[in-house]
């Protein structure tokens, strides 16, 4: 905005006129321009190109909306379109231009499946070419594309511009995430999303069946409450993400809204009853916490029943607040029981940390505190899946301990009975056979649990993309290696590798090709890190680390140079051309003078890496640690 310095002879009226003129002209100056779809685009996020207008009381026609002056439209200007809860009705518009010569077959995806009424208007050259009526108040099979989100297919001819208007009326959060897809690219991306959904629901289904069978076998009520909890959680998420509307009740438009509040309250209800039984929170040992949890459970049950009668718009905010209170209370229960040295509470507390994090992220996104994106929308699923697995492990651990205690008690009883009643030898043999069978069952469950724990440990320590160890595993191993090297006065070498110009390579060829590049570099590193005690890991992004225990500087330099040469020589095919990548390597070889020298060693190797980059990249630079504290390290 232009500012005018006040002058002696400038009239006050002229200033007011200029101020009002600028006030009305400002929205037009910052209004969103058209989104450009070129021939290389596969996906285009539209929120930053969106403008919106709040509709006054009473429906307004499309013609009236089109005639609005430009300053009435508010540019969104953010990475997400999220206006929170309320009774307002909003119009949104976005212009899309195709500067190319070919016709593009596109999808407009509205990625929030619980919007009630969505009217979509497509205008080309000022003429209405298509109108779609969407929303979860319409039967699912009336959608033009059968998908949990709202999809509008259309074609955009070359050297042309298309205007899209949307009228959104909903009782849920006013979130309108708009994405423009190439149709082929959408189906490719949908495979990954469907795989994610399938893995989540598959994990939950397996856990439901497993714990249900365990309950039928042992009769422990905690398993039954747990089954209720892990059955309600995926039903809530399926309702929220549109999966249930697509596969379970595609014609039940009224129930589709109500199911969200009903199942979320059932999650709180069964989560509370399970916590009380599993953590043994009774009026005798924790009177206040017991009364608080029971009160939350009762409120959740009443709200769940009210969800069958009371409209969604009146229940959703109380339900979210009740869910937040319930999750927080369960976490407090676990912390209190941990302080009481309850072994089961350790697993329980960790599980609720994951689930509470997911729930808080989801709630904050609904209140527009956090933006709506892939992380915030799927945080609840990821957190609940991890929590479900951890709680199942906790239940199995508790069952194992109880069975072990029962077995030991039975052994003692058998010994006493053998001394007192030698005449009952036949009866004792039968009892021993029963105990043997029980021991086998306990051992089988223990082996299953150990196998699952080993799998979980391996998954948690491995980078999914490259197959190398991840940063968390490296940090733990690095600390142990430094302590060992300090204790036995052994040399320890650390290599930091960074792919040269990787950001430019990633921006030029795309993230998928960038992922292939990271895998190629990881394979080259793996060829020369072969000793059992050596460790290669992905530290983050395009950075890798190699830890070489009991290796002096000369040996580490040879390994680093081999890795660098191998990567430089390895051709990397991208489309019809073969590229060669290079890496810069920083090296630090040292006999640690203290057990907690990990930070210094890593800092020296990092300085050597930056020195290698400053010298022109594609080289190895070794750092000589300073001999005097406070002195500068020497780079060679």
Automatic annotation (TrEMBL):
Q: Does the keyword Chaperone apply?
A: no
Q: What InterPro entries is this protein classified in? A: 7TMR_DISM_rcpt_extracell_dom1 (IPR011623), 7TMR_DISM_rcpt_extracell_dom2 (IPR011622), Diguanylate_Cyclase (IPR050469), GGDEF_dom (IPR000160), Nucleotide_cyclase (IPR029787), Rev_trsase/Diguanyl_cyclase (IPR043128)
Transmembrane stretches, start-end:
199-219, 226-248, 260-281, 288-309, 315-336, 348-367
Is the Lipoprotein keyword given for this protein? no
Which key words tag this protein in UniProt? Answer: Coiled coil, Membrane, Transmembrane, Transmembrane helix
Where along the sequence do coiled-coil regions lie? 435-462
Name recorded for this polypeptide? diguanylate cyclase
Q: What is the source species?
A: Marinobacter algicola DG893
């Amino acid at each position: 905005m232009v500012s005018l310095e006040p002058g002696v002879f400038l009239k006050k009226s002229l200033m007011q006129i200029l101020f009002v003129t600028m006030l009305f002209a400002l929205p037009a100056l910052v209004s969103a321009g058209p989104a450009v779809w070129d021939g290389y685009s596969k996906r285009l996020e539209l929120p930053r190109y969106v403008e919106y207008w709040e509709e006054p009381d009473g429906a307004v026609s499309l013609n009236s909306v089109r005639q609005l002056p430009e300053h009435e439209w508010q540019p969104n200007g953010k990475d997400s379109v999220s206006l929170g809860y309320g009774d307002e009705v909003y119009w949104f518009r976005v212009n899309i231009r195709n500067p190319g010569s070919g016709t593009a077959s596109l999808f407009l995806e509205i990625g929030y499946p619980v919007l009630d009424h969505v009217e979509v208007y497509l205008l080309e050259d000022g003429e209405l070419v298509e109108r779609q009526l969407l929303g979860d108040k319409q039967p699912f099979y009336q959608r033009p594309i059968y998908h949990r989100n709202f999809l509008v297919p259309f074609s955009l001819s070359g050297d042309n511009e298309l205007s899209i208007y949307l009228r959104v009326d909903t009782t849920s959060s006013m979130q309108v995430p708009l994405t423009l897809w190439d149709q082929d690219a959408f189906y490719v991306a949908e495979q990954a999303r469907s795989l994610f959904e399938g893995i989540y629901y598959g994990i939950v289904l397996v856990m439901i069946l497993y714990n249900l069978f365990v309950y039928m076998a042992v009769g422990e009520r905690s398993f039954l409450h747990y089954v209720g909890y892990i059955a309600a959680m995926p039903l809530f998420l399926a309702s929220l993400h549109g999966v249930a509307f697509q596969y379970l009740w595609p014609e039940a438009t009224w129930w589709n809204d109500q199911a969200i509040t009903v199942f979320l309250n059932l999650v709180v209800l069964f989560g509370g009853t399970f916590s009380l039984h599993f953590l043994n929170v009774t009026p005798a040992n924790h009177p206040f916490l017991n009364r608080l949890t029971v009160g939350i459970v009762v409120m959740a049950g009443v709200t769940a029943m009210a969800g069958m009668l009371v409209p969604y718009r009146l229940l959703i905010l109380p339900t979210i607040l009740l869910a937040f209170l319930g999750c927080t209370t369960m976490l407090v229960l676990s912390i209190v029981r941990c302080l009481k040295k309850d072994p089961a509470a350790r697993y329980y507390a960790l599980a609720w940390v994951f689930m509470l994090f997911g729930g808080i992220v989801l709630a904050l996104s609904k209140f527009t505190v956090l933006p709506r994106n892939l992380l915030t929308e799927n945080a609840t699923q990821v957190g609940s899946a991890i929590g479900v697995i951890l709680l199942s492990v906790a239940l199995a651990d508790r069952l194992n301990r109880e069975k072990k205690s029962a077995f030991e008690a039975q052994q003692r009883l058998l010994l006493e009975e053998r001394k007192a009643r030698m005449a009952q030898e036949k009866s004792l043999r039968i009892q021993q056979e029963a105990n043997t069978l029980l021991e086998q069952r306990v051992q089988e469950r223990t082996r299953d649990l150990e196998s699952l724990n080993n799998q979980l440990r391996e998954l948690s320590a491995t980078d999914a993309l490259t197959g190398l160890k991840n940063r968390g595993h490296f940090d733990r191993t690095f600390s142990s290696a430094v302590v060992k090297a300090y204790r036995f006065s052994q040399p320890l070498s650390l290599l930091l590798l960074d792919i040269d110009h990787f950001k430019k390579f990633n921006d030029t060829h795309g993230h998928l090709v960038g992922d292939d590049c990271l895998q190629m570099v990881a394979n080259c590193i793996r060829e020369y890190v072969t000793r059992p005690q050596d460790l290669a890991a992905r530290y983050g992004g395009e950075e890798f680390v190699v830890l070489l225990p009991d290796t002096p500087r000369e040996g580490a330099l040879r390994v680093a140079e081999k890795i660098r040469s191998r990567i430089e020589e390895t051709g990397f095919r991208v489309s019809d051309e073969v590229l060669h990548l290079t890496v810069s390597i920083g090296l630090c070889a040292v006999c640690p003078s203290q057990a907690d020298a990990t930070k210094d060693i890593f800092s020296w190797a990092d300085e050597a890496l930056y020195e290698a980059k400053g010298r022109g990249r594609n080289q190895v630079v070794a750092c000589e640690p300073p001999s005097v504290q406070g002195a500068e390290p020497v780079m060679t």
